Amino acid sequence: MTATAPQVSVNPAAGGDTFVPEDDSVWYGETAALAGFLVAHYPMDEGCRRIVTGALAHIDRFYATRRTENIRGETIPVTASPISGDEGRALLQLAIENGVRRSLEIGFSFGMSTSHLLVANHVVGGEGHTAIDPFQLSDYYQGAGLKNIYNQNLGSRFGWIAGLSNVVLPSLLERGQRFDLVFIDGSHLFSDTFIDAYYAYQLTPVGGLIVFDDKYLAAVRTVMNILRTNFGCVDYPYHRAKDFGVMVKTEKHRLDWTKFDTEFAPFSVAT
Ligand SMILES: C[S@@+](CC[C@H](N)C(=O)[O-])C[C@H]1O[C@@H](n2cnc3c(N)ncnc32)[C@H](O)[C@@H]1O
After folding, report:
1. Which pLDDT tens digit goes with each residue over 50-89?
2. CB 31 within 8 Å of CB 56
3. Residues 199-218: pLDDT tens digits?
4. In sequence order, what are the residues at sequence separation of 6 or more whose Cβ sits closer than 8 angstroms to the Cβ of residue 178?
5. CB of 107 closer than 6 A to ligand 1?
């Protein structure tokens, strides 16, 4: 299921319209209350309920302690910058309210965006989530992302591809894979971000969501400008996570390569 901006769409897992509370504070409040809300409003079997509740509690501990386990089970400090707890919940909300069944992310790290997208996948009864990252087993991350997914029992719907995104993304396209939501949080160099966005665009259906982290970076905002001007993407009206840029793929992009001399729209470069 995919998004059609600006509406919130139907969640097939819920067998009808997604329940969207008037006040979204439940998403950002106490963990047990959020777990209770999800269990009450989305049909899940007992196994899924346990996973969702346990994973949310595990995520809470990660942010509270800023410590995590590496692949060998040793406790290590969280040295890099995962998305914040609120951003994770924003991603969770976005994926659930849009009934995202298949998601992809670039940038696995300690596995926090991964955990939230996997929880969402369990809630909507989706088909799975894939993360691309070549550095998971490096000295830096020490397999902590994998360990977090394992400790939360989220592994059954998860696939990790160890490779640079500019190599992996075209291979996913070639294999005919499609994703309702792509989260871009890998290398933040302009060139890599553009390549990630280019393939995210190819890999999502019309109505699919492309979510950028770190919109504060000029490189990211410039890539978003290119998607708006030359790819026909529109902004999804989304204000919960200030540093996320959320875009929707629309029907507009029908560029004809035989008219390459006219099929180009200037775009502004952010500074
Ligand atoms: C900011 S972290 C991602 C944080 C993660 N999304 C989270 O919230 O927990 C950036 C990640 O991108 C990965 N990365 C850097 N360059 C990459 C590339 N070219 N392809 C795929 N991943 C890359 C790094 O290994 C790192 O794990």
Report:
1. 999 999 999 999 999 999 999 999 999 998 789 999 999 9
2. yes
3. 999 999 999 999 999 999 99
4. 102, 203, 204, 205, 208
5. yes
The best mutation among 87, 92, 109, 137 to test binding of ligand 1, ranked by most ligand atoms within 8 Å of the C-beta, falls on: 109
Q: How far is the CA of 187 from the centre of ligand 1 (A)?
A: 6
Q: What is the DSSP string of 63-120?
A: HHH-EEE-TTS-EEE--S-PPPHHHHHHHHHHHHHTT--EEEEE--TTSHHHHHHHHH
Measuring from atom 16 of ligand 1, which residue has the nearest CA? Answer: 187
The reply to whether ligand 1 has any atom less than 6 angstroms from the CB of 3 is no
Apex 184 CA angle, 181 and 186, nearest 5? 145
Token output for 149? 């997914």
- Residue 22 confidence class, pLDDT cut points 50, 70, 90: low
Percent of the chain at pLDDT > 70 equals 91
Q: Can you tell me the distance from the alpha carbon of 220 to that of 243, in angstroms, rounded to the nearest whole number? A: 10
Query: Where are the domains positioned within the chain?
Result: 10-259
Ligand 1 binding pocket mutation candidate from 135, 164, 244 (most atoms within 8 A of CB)? 135
Ligand 1 pocket check for 106: Cβ under 6 Å: yes
Please state the atom number of ligand 1 nearest to the C-alpha of residue 110.
Answer: 9
CATH code of 10-259, in short, is 3.40.50.150
Average pLDDT, the chain: 91
196 touches ligand 1 (CB under 6 Å): no
